[in-house]
Specification:
This protein has helices spanning about 5, 45-55, 75-85, 90-95, 100-110, and strands spanning about 10-15, 25-35, 40-45, 65-70. By secondary structure, the chain is α+β, with helices and mostly antiparallel strands.
């Protein structure tokens, strides 16, 4: 078995909703494995998700999985992705999303569930 640190090529934190507030944001974590596979994980802080649900008037949400982090910072994203890979590589598969952002997904969810 390949050690996790050798399996993960690199990780990027992209499409931050507010780069100045990593404690209240959403974004996308791009995980690139050395074997060529790529995973896109939706990420958010709990406070951002709660505020967005309130803003959209959502009483519930189901859909692509969201990875919650206390702060949306590269170091936290890197640790989360590597821990997921170490726990069970299938976690990356389960959290992989259609290449969209969380605000787009929640807005589409709101439109489908008035």
């Amino acid at each position: 078995m390949t050690p996790v640190s050798n399996a993960v090529g690199h990780i990027e934190l992209t499409q931050l909703s507010d780069p100045t507030r990593p404690d209240h944001a959403s974004g996308v974590i791009e995980v690139y494995l050395k074997d060529g596979r790529q995973f896109t994980l939706l990420a958010a802080t709990p406070s951002w998700f709660k505020a967005e649900m309130k803003r959209l008037g959502l009483r519930f949400y189901y859909g692509p999985a969201v990875l919650f982090l206390k702060n949306l910072e590269l170091s936290a994203a890197r640790k989360a992705a590597k821990d997921m890979m170490a726990e069970d590589e299938q976690l990356l598969v389960r959290y992989d999303t259609p290449r969209r952002t969380l605000p787009d997904i929640l807005a589409a969810f709101r439109a489908a569930h008035p």
